[in-house]
Automatic annotation (TrEMBL):
Residues 98-291 form the ABC transmembrane type-1 domain. The lineage of its organism: Bacteria, Bacillati, Actinomycetota, Actinomycetes, Micrococcales. InterPro entries: MetI-like, MetI-like_sf. GO terms for cellular component: plasma membrane. Residues 1-33 are annotated as: Disordered. Residues 24-33 have a biased composition (Basic residues). Belongs to the binding-protein-dependent transport system permease family. GO terms for biological process: transmembrane transport. Keywords: Cell membrane, Membrane, Transmembrane, Transmembrane helix, Transport. The chain crosses the membrane at residues 37-58, 102-124, 133-157, 169-192, 213-234, 269-291. This is Carbohydrate ABC transporter permease. It is a multi-pass membrane protein. It comes from the Bacteria.
Length: 306
């Protein structure tokens, strides 16, 4: 028997009709320019924010003569002399101002974060008559500028004899409408209602539920509220300017302002003002670097995973 090889049919020479589908060539993806443009805008914004800080850090190393004669971003040789002069000026009054700022910002931020956490948790997890109206009033408080409330707050505190004391700076910063709003968002997203109901069935009180269950679940969000409030109080100038008259109770912002006002007649004080500004920025940088891993990139992220 002879093996036969299969023969292939000849290629069809029939013309392709218009209705037949043709294989489409892969199209080239258009160049995505929007992410590149967004990156450029972000880099420009970062440069706009960082260049003044870099200038302060560089200028703090210059002597009074170098400050007005050398290139702006060229480092100087008088850093240690400026720090020594700043520390000895007024018997070390600058460091007293630094301790005052740490007291105002630290205690005020902790108290404000705790109050905001309690208020935000209550607004998110409890339904009572007028809760929506109360939350709307709190949102309206976010829109009110601080300068509008400064004089009424001074009059109220002066009527009870607290104007000019540490309490006159601490008490007004405890209530933070924006912090309450953020804590309400964090509590609604991170604390499940089923967990609260299970704790109530086990006989836990509301105080224990809030301290043992709600606060740990809201911890990352509360770090964000604490950081925002700490930076806001640390940089606050208007409230201490209105409330305080004793220089020993001044924060850094108000103390550096007195340096600057005196420097109008004495140019040797300008390096002290710049050096003090550079030193006052260092605690904020350290705090941001230490707490950045706790930031909440997504405010609506849930508190439970898996």
């Amino acid at each position: 028997m002879t093996a036969t090889t299969p023969t292939l049919p000849p290629p069809s020479s029939a013309p392709v009709r218009r209705g037949d589908r043709q294989p489409q060539r892969p199209r080239k993806q258009p160049t995505q320019r929007r992410p590149r443009l967004a990156s450029i805008v972000l880099l420009l914004g970062a440069a706009y924010c960082l260049i003044p800080v870099i200038w302060v850090l560089v200028a703090s190393s210059k002597s009074p003569r170098e400050l007005f004669t050398s290139f702006s971003f060229a480092p100087g040789t008088g850093l240690f002399d400026n720090v020594a002069a700043l520390s000895s000026y007024g018997g070390g009054q600058f460091w007293q101002w630094g301790l005052n700022s740490l007291l105002y910002a630290g205690v005020g931020a902790v108290a404000s974060t705790l109050v905001s956490a309690m208020a935000g948790y209550a607004l998110a997890k409890f339904r009572f008559r007028g809760s929506d109206l109360l939350f709307s009033v709190i949102l309206a408080g976010v829109l009110v500028p601080g300068i509008v409330l400064a004089v009424p707050q001074y009059l109220l505190l002066a009527s009870v004899g607290l104007a000019g004391t540490y309490w006159s700076v601490l008490l007004p910063v405890v209530i933070n409408p924006f912090g309450i709003f953020l804590c309400r968002v964090f509590a609604a997203a991170a604390v499940p209602d089923d967990t609260l109901e299970a704790a109530r069935l086990d006989g836990a009180s509301e105080v224990r539920i809030f301290g043992s269950i709600a606060l740990p679940m809201m911890a990352q969000g509360l770090v964000t509220v604490f950081l925002l409030q700490f930076v806001g109080i640390w940089n606050n100038f208007l409230l201490p300017f209105i409330m305080l008259s004793d220089q020993d109770k001044y924060p850094l912002t108000l103390g550096l302002y007195t340096f600057l006002s005196k420097g109008a007649g004495d140019s040797d004080l300008y390096p002290l003002v710049i050096t003090g500004s550079a030193v006052s920025v260092i605690p904020l940088i350290m705090l941001v670097l230490a707490l950045q891993r706790f930031w909440r990139a997504d405010l609506l992220a849930g508190g439970l995973k898996g």
